[in-house]
Write a structure and sequence with these properties.
779 residues, alpha/beta, globular
Amino acid sequence: MITTDLLQRAVSAISSRDPETGYGLTELLRTGSILPQETQNIKDLHFFFEGEKVLINRESIFSHGTESIEERLVIKYGELAEKYKLQTAETDIDFMSAAKRIHRAGIETLVNFEINRAVEDIRKTESSLLIKRHRQSAEQVIDILKGLEPSSDSLIKIEEHDPLYSTEVSPGKTIHFIPFPFSFDSLKQAAELQLEYFHVRFLISILISEMSCMLYAAVTEGRITGIILLDKRYRHMSQVIEVKYIATVNSKPAAPETAMYPRIKGTGTFIIAGTWLLWKEIWPRAHEIYLNAESGAADFYRSIGFSYRHPYSYLLKTPQGKLLLYITVMAMNLSAMPQNLEKAMEKIIRAQFRYLKKHHRAEDIKRKAAVLIVSTCIGPGKNAFLRTEAKNLLHKYSGKIPESTMLLDGLKEEGSIRTTPVILNGAGEIPVVWDARYEEHLKGVFHLESSKRIPAVREILSADYLFDRITLITPRQASADELLWCHNKEYIEKVAKTSGIEISSLDPDTQTTAQTYITAKLAAGGVFSLIDTLYSTAAGSPGIAFIRPPGHHAEPDRAMGFCIFNNTALGAEYALRHYNAKRVLIVDIDLHHGNGTQKIFYNRKDVLYFSAHQFPCFPGTGKLGETGNGEGKGYTVNVPLHMGLSDLDYQKVFYFLLCPVAEEYRPDIIMVSIGFDLFHEDPLGKMNVSPEGYALMTRMLKELADKLCGGRILFVMEGGYSINGIKKCGSRVMQELAGIPTLPPDKIERVKKENPAGLPGLNKAIEIQKEYWKCLKVF
């Protein structure tokens, strides 16, 4: 515990370096403004400063004694001094601005204190071997320290520090592995974070020592998310890379002063991956990576390939699991690699193919990881060497690996961009199709179906709670032959002719730009890629395709209502043709009726089309009597609804009509055309559905799929023209798909007590459909 004696020793140490600050702290200690810990609790070390509880890092106390207490005392004294300044100032300042200034003053007081302390020590020991190592004079080292000046935003500018390895951990959020960026701002960040071992005094001692080149950091959005200190040493007559210390922001409890630091799940694995790449690139003679760790970390280190050595040693020779995936993604983001690293990565890729050839169990976790690593190498990315190596091996093992057809499809887009960053994906269970290329359609053109919808989705997927829960799937383009399943040749050629033209109109609502044809093929192909993923993995995982342009209005021979090709209808055909699905259920929960999807399957029974939509409304189809034709009679279910309906109304439609019909139909896969225009703020809609309503519908559809088709369900984005609505409703959909509970337990049960007769459109639909479905009854 933090005793009075420890506090007195810390204050004395401060006084010996800065008498003025030491005097002030001595007076505060004497008058009881600084108080020791009251109860003996080694897990919660703290003292009180002016009545405020100040936490002390336990590991720092054990490793560095009173230094961490000194650090916190100096910070609090700097804050107190700034408070007095503000109280005596004549100008008014709001509370939030004052709080920020006080916090910043405390942090800067500490950094300046430690810099001055280091300068004083250097002047006393000019013959220090640490300084001689640099072949610099004491004054030159002092100039380096005194040259550390704060910037206005206190962020680390990545471009100034030459990132060694990088990867996007979610769309728009990149994590970089860099040599530690010694600066006043990075020291301020370290002071705020209080990471185990890496307090300011220790970092400054590293800066002026021979170890400075062995300190690395993970940085995201200009802020430190983790630090690692390495060392080259000999162990049992072999050279090894030792991890002396490693710490991440994730290990810190959440606190207001560190809320701005990104907490990226997997940062520790990322840092170890960067260390492995350094090992193979710079220190190839080293035998292994070595570290000491407490038993509590055993599961983590074993899961990524470390082997245990008594009593607390862990050794890494061959990476496994998520570490292997991180390494592959980070390597794919390198435009070039030295020969040592090329050889190491070539060995990894060959090992994946050998494993895929030998082990054929679909539920094998290692097999799924191997498929993911191979698909990462043949997908987008800067590294031509890895892609060529994977491509050659894929052709070599074609026919010997069950997934080879799916993987070869990823090589068909010879014209696709191959220099985009590879996003770290595959850590989670929910496959998601998203690609920045979907922004190309109508880019720079004012339109309700705006390219801004894709960045809005990026924001959803960047949420920390989704990291490690989603797998990003790289979409392929649909071929012209595949488009012929649902569209005629003349129409496809008409769209193709718009390529390269700045802007064209296919109908009064539907325009194209130079890249629309390619983007529309990528939208349909994205649904194909998602279906491939759902059928190549164990059942039980839903998926979602955030694509554009939308599709459910597109008819066989024409574009309509912002739609170019009918993505969901094409996806249904893909499942029927490629995976021998016998029955496909399409559920359309866009505000508008999907006239194109209905028309394509109106005479068939292998696809059941269900739509609940606002009526009257564009496009004017979807009346109660539109139930199918010929063999397809009864396999079109329309529920036209009047405007202004709420979450509970849609819940009734699902519970009393969709669910019983689906149970009688028994689909092999469920496809959901999901529009976010039911949201009450949508500019084109007049419904009153909330984000919670979207969560409810998603939960019910997911449970229906679990019951009927082993969980095989995919959602395809259609409309939704409020960016705010996409973010709010899309977030709730993703949380439900990822198994993050957001609804009260009794929310779905409530509908069982309702009467569908109170919703005229629903009751009329049940009355008409009961002719075809024995399960239905009129209330």
